[in-house]
Specification:
alpha/beta, six-stranded mixed sheet, four-stranded antiparallel sheet, about 30% strand, binds adenosine-5'-diphosphate, translocase, transport, cell membrane, Spermidine/putrescine transport system ATP-binding protein
Length: about 220
């Protein structure tokens, strides 16, 4: 079944068309990548799902409800960006617990869920440190932990490994795939790296100049480029 449905979605900024008449059904639980060169509309597509932008035309439905009518904090969606966007003045624990603390949840539960996520991500020895004391890969793991601890049904990932060196990127690709299997949530993954999309995705939407040119499994894309 589908969790997100784009129907004829266009996004314009003034005269410029960032997203051009996209229709797309995203299945619950899949790992789908939006692949294409810089400027082709990947981030804009993601930002519309997250509720940071509204379409100029067309509709986006999440769970059969018009996304534009849902306030961003009522969407079953969380986002991880390339630049981590951690809070510099909060410890790793406090960064990860932040979202849970905005909800009315007992303190003991916040602690147990945050500690569990810290363990899943192998961040135990960094619990009381601050973001600047961590490497890029560790910070990205904190950003993932912070998003996943809220148990979103959809995780939006905008070039989350883009700032990492090649070796670390390979390692994190593997970890992300494992997390996707472990958490059974929908991953929507923006990348301009074809190899990365081929390795990680269940399906790839190939974008160019605001349009989806092809959408298929990695196997199909690889054999019919
Ligand atoms: P990608 O993520 O594939 O690099 P974007 O979605 O960021 O592409 O951008 C698609 C196009 O829309 C680009 O030409 C970009 O300059 C333009 N664009 C994106 N956001 C804005 C904005 N807030 N204002 C004006 N133009 C924008
Ligand atoms: P990426 O290429 O990694 O997707 P960009 O550097 O194009 O990201 O864009 C970063 C941010 O700036 C995004 O939030 C995007 O919406 C915004 N942006 C991109 N192009 C423009 C533009 N021409 N005018 C205003 N904002 C833009």
């Amino acid at each position: 079944s589908c969790i997100i449905e784009f129907n004829g979605v266009t996004k314009k900024y003034g005269q410029a068309t960032a997203v051009d008449n996209i229709s797309l059904s995203i299945r619950e639980g899949e790992f789908i990548s939006l692949l294409g060169p810089s400027g082709c509309g990947k981030t804009t597509t993601l930002r519309m799902i997250g509720g940071f932008e509204l379409p100029s035309q067309g509709s986006i439905k999440i769970d059969d409800k018009e996304a534009g009518n849902l306030p961003p904090n009522h969407r079953p969606v969380n986002t991880v960006f390339q630049n981590y966007a951690l809070f510099p003045h909060l410890s790793i624990y406090e960064n990860i617990a932040f979202g849970l603390k905005q909800k009315k949840i007992p303190k003991s539960q916040i602690k147990s869920e945050t500690d569990e996520m810290i363990e899943v991500m192998g961040l135990q020895q960094h619990r009381e440190k601050y973001p600047r004391q961590l490497s890029g890969g560790q910070q990205q793991r904190v950003a993932l932990a912070r998003a996943l601890v809220n148990k979103p049904r959809v995780l939006l990932l905008d070039e989350p490994l883009g700032a990492l060196d090649l070796k670390l990127r390979k390692k994190m690709q593997f970890e992300l795939k494992k997390l996707h299997e472990q958490f059974e949530i929908t991953f929507i993954y923006v990348t301009h790296d074809q190899e990365e999309a081929l390795i990680m995705s269940d399906r790839i939407a190939v974008m160019n100049q605001g349009r989806i040119e092809q959408i298929d499994t990695p196997q199909q894309i690889y054999s019919n480029p």
